[in-house]
Design a protein that fits this description.
The protein has about 180 residues and is an alpha+beta fold. The protein has one domain (about 1-175): Glutaredoxin (3-Layer(aba) Sandwich). Helices cover about 25% and strands about 25% of the residues. It contains 5 helices and 10 strands, in the order βββαβαβαβαβββαβ. The protein has helices at about 30-35, 50-65, 85-95, 110-115, 150-160, and strands at about 1-5, 20, 25-30, 35-40, 65-75, 100-105, 115-120, 120-125, 130-135, 175. The chain has a 5-stranded mixed beta sheet. Strands 1-10-7 form a 3-stranded antiparallel beta sheet, with helices on one face. A two-stranded antiparallel sheet has the order 2-3. The two termini are about 20 Å apart.
Length: about 180
Protein backbone atom coordinates (compact mmCIF):
# COMPACT_ATOMS: atom_id res chain seq x y z
CA UNK A 1 0.00 0.00 0.00
CA UNK A 2 1.42 3.40 -1.01
CA UNK A 3 1.72 6.03 1.70
CA UNK A 4 3.15 9.56 1.87
CA UNK A 5 5.73 10.72 4.35
CA UNK A 6 4.57 12.92 7.16
CA UNK A 7 6.14 15.98 8.68
CA UNK A 8 9.43 15.76 10.52
CA UNK A 9 10.38 19.23 11.77
CA UNK A 10 13.28 20.81 9.93
CA UNK A 11 16.18 21.27 12.29
CA UNK A 12 15.59 17.87 13.92
CA UNK A 13 19.03 16.52 14.84
CA UNK A 14 20.54 13.44 13.26
CA UNK A 15 19.63 10.56 15.56
CA UNK A 16 22.31 9.14 17.81
CA UNK A 17 22.25 5.62 16.43
CA UNK A 18 24.52 2.76 15.53
CA UNK A 19 23.21 0.13 13.12
CA UNK A 20 24.79 -2.95 11.55
CA UNK A 21 25.67 -2.94 7.86
CA UNK A 22 25.02 -5.93 5.62
CA UNK A 23 28.17 -7.65 6.92
CA UNK A 24 27.23 -7.06 10.56
CA UNK A 25 29.73 -4.24 11.16
CA UNK A 26 28.48 -1.42 13.39
CA UNK A 27 28.07 1.96 11.67
CA UNK A 28 27.52 5.05 13.80
CA UNK A 29 25.47 7.61 11.86
CA UNK A 30 27.24 10.59 13.44
CA UNK A 31 30.68 9.15 12.67
CA UNK A 32 29.61 8.49 9.10
CA UNK A 33 28.37 12.06 8.69
CA UNK A 34 31.61 13.46 10.13
CA UNK A 35 31.00 17.05 9.00
CA UNK A 36 29.55 16.08 5.61
CA UNK A 37 26.07 16.57 4.22
CA UNK A 38 24.32 13.25 4.90
CA UNK A 39 21.37 11.70 3.12
CA UNK A 40 19.51 8.93 4.95
CA UNK A 41 17.46 6.94 2.46
CA UNK A 42 14.95 4.47 3.88
CA UNK A 43 14.84 1.68 1.31
CA UNK A 44 13.68 -1.88 0.78
CA UNK A 45 14.57 -4.50 -1.80
CA UNK A 46 11.02 -5.70 -2.46
CA UNK A 47 9.45 -2.24 -2.89
CA UNK A 48 8.68 -1.22 -6.51
CA UNK A 49 8.94 2.47 -5.56
CA UNK A 50 12.52 1.94 -4.37
CA UNK A 51 13.33 -0.19 -7.40
CA UNK A 52 12.08 2.73 -9.52
CA UNK A 53 14.51 5.22 -7.92
CA UNK A 54 17.55 2.94 -7.60
CA UNK A 55 19.39 4.29 -10.68
CA UNK A 56 18.86 7.93 -9.67
CA UNK A 57 20.11 7.27 -6.15
CA UNK A 58 23.27 5.68 -7.58
CA UNK A 59 23.75 8.65 -9.92
CA UNK A 60 23.27 11.16 -7.10
CA UNK A 61 25.85 9.32 -4.98
CA UNK A 62 28.41 9.73 -7.78
CA UNK A 63 27.42 13.30 -8.65
CA UNK A 64 27.90 15.30 -5.45
CA UNK A 65 31.23 15.84 -3.71
CA UNK A 66 30.74 16.37 0.01
CA UNK A 67 27.59 14.22 0.15
CA UNK A 68 27.44 10.94 1.99
CA UNK A 69 24.53 8.55 1.59
CA UNK A 70 23.40 5.81 3.94
CA UNK A 71 20.53 3.50 2.98
CA UNK A 72 18.53 2.01 5.84
CA UNK A 73 16.10 -0.89 5.72
CA UNK A 74 13.67 -0.91 8.64
CA UNK A 75 11.28 -3.53 7.28
CA UNK A 76 10.37 -6.67 9.19
CA UNK A 77 12.71 -9.10 7.40
CA UNK A 78 11.04 -12.09 9.03
CA UNK A 79 7.77 -11.33 7.24
CA UNK A 80 9.50 -9.85 4.15
CA UNK A 81 12.55 -12.08 3.53
CA UNK A 82 13.56 -10.17 0.38
CA UNK A 83 14.51 -7.39 2.80
CA UNK A 84 16.90 -9.61 4.79
CA UNK A 85 20.65 -9.00 4.28
CA UNK A 86 21.01 -11.35 1.28
CA UNK A 87 18.25 -9.53 -0.60
CA UNK A 88 19.64 -6.13 0.32
CA UNK A 89 23.11 -7.18 -0.90
CA UNK A 90 21.56 -8.24 -4.22
CA UNK A 91 19.74 -4.91 -4.43
CA UNK A 92 22.88 -2.85 -3.76
CA UNK A 93 24.74 -4.81 -6.43
CA UNK A 94 21.87 -4.52 -8.95
CA UNK A 95 21.51 -0.78 -8.28
CA UNK A 96 25.23 0.01 -8.31
CA UNK A 97 25.14 1.40 -4.78
CA UNK A 98 28.53 1.80 -3.15
CA UNK A 99 27.26 3.50 0.00
CA UNK A 100 26.49 1.68 3.26
CA UNK A 101 23.21 -0.18 3.60
CA UNK A 102 22.20 -0.51 7.24
CA UNK A 103 19.66 -2.71 8.97
CA UNK A 104 17.27 -1.13 11.48
CA UNK A 105 15.98 -4.46 12.82
CA UNK A 106 14.44 -2.87 15.93
CA UNK A 107 12.92 -0.10 13.80
CA UNK A 108 14.06 2.45 16.40
CA UNK A 109 15.66 4.78 13.86
CA UNK A 110 12.60 4.76 11.60
CA UNK A 111 10.37 5.46 14.58
CA UNK A 112 12.65 8.21 15.91
CA UNK A 113 12.58 10.03 12.56
CA UNK A 114 8.97 9.34 11.69
CA UNK A 115 9.91 7.41 8.55
CA UNK A 116 6.81 5.75 7.13
CA UNK A 117 7.59 4.65 3.58
CA UNK A 118 10.22 3.42 1.18
CA UNK A 119 11.79 5.40 -0.26
CA UNK A 120 11.83 8.13 2.36
CA UNK A 121 14.64 10.73 2.26
CA UNK A 122 16.14 12.74 5.14
CA UNK A 123 18.89 15.24 4.25
CA UNK A 124 21.12 16.64 7.01
CA UNK A 125 23.53 19.56 6.85
CA UNK A 126 27.13 19.43 8.03
CA UNK A 127 26.01 20.17 11.59
CA UNK A 128 23.63 17.19 11.61
CA UNK A 129 20.44 19.24 11.34
CA UNK A 130 17.56 18.05 9.13
CA UNK A 131 17.18 20.35 6.11
CA UNK A 132 15.00 18.32 3.75
CA UNK A 133 12.44 15.57 4.22
CA UNK A 134 10.77 14.59 1.01
CA UNK A 135 10.62 13.02 -2.39
CA UNK A 136 13.28 12.29 -4.99
CA UNK A 137 11.04 13.85 -7.65
CA UNK A 138 7.39 13.83 -8.76
CA UNK A 139 7.60 10.47 -10.55
CA UNK A 140 6.39 7.06 -9.43
CA UNK A 141 6.42 3.66 -11.12
CA UNK A 142 2.99 4.17 -12.69
CA UNK A 143 2.33 7.91 -13.02
CA UNK A 144 4.12 8.38 -16.35
CA UNK A 145 6.32 11.24 -15.15
CA UNK A 146 10.04 10.95 -15.92
CA UNK A 147 12.47 9.85 -13.23
CA UNK A 148 14.78 12.83 -12.80
CA UNK A 149 15.69 13.17 -9.13
CA UNK A 150 15.28 16.92 -9.54
CA UNK A 151 13.74 17.67 -6.12
CA UNK A 152 16.38 15.81 -4.15
CA UNK A 153 19.20 17.13 -6.34
CA UNK A 154 18.06 20.73 -5.75
CA UNK A 155 17.81 20.09 -2.01
CA UNK A 156 21.33 18.62 -1.94
CA UNK A 157 22.73 21.55 -3.92
CA UNK A 158 21.16 24.04 -1.49
CA UNK A 159 22.44 22.21 1.59
CA UNK A 160 25.93 21.78 0.16
CA UNK A 161 25.95 25.55 -0.49
CA UNK A 162 24.93 26.21 3.13
CA UNK A 163 21.46 27.42 2.09
CA UNK A 164 17.98 26.51 3.27
CA UNK A 165 15.90 24.29 1.04
CA UNK A 166 12.88 26.30 -0.13
CA UNK A 167 9.50 25.15 1.13
CA UNK A 168 7.28 23.31 0.55
CA UNK A 169 9.00 19.93 0.44
CA UNK A 170 7.06 17.39 -1.61
CA UNK A 171 6.31 14.36 0.60
CA UNK A 172 7.97 11.09 -0.30
CA UNK A 173 5.61 8.37 -1.49
CA UNK A 174 6.14 4.64 -1.53
CA UNK A 175 5.48 1.33 0.13
CA UNK A 176 4.66 1.54 3.81
CA UNK A 177 7.41 0.40 6.16
CA UNK A 178 6.62 -3.16 7.18
CA UNK A 179 6.35 -2.81 10.95
CA UNK A 180 7.08 -5.64 13.33
CA UNK A 181 3.83 -6.97 14.80
CA UNK A 182 3.62 -6.23 18.49
Amino acid sequence: MAVESGPTPLGTPLPDATLPDLEGRAVDLADHADGHVLLLAFCANHCPYVQWVEPQLAAIAAEFDGLRIVAICSNDAHEYPDDAPAGLRAQALRAGWSFPYLIDATQEVALALGAVCTPDFFLYDRAGSLQYRGALDASSPKNGLPLTGDLLRRAIAHVLAGESVPLPHRPAMGCSIKWIAS
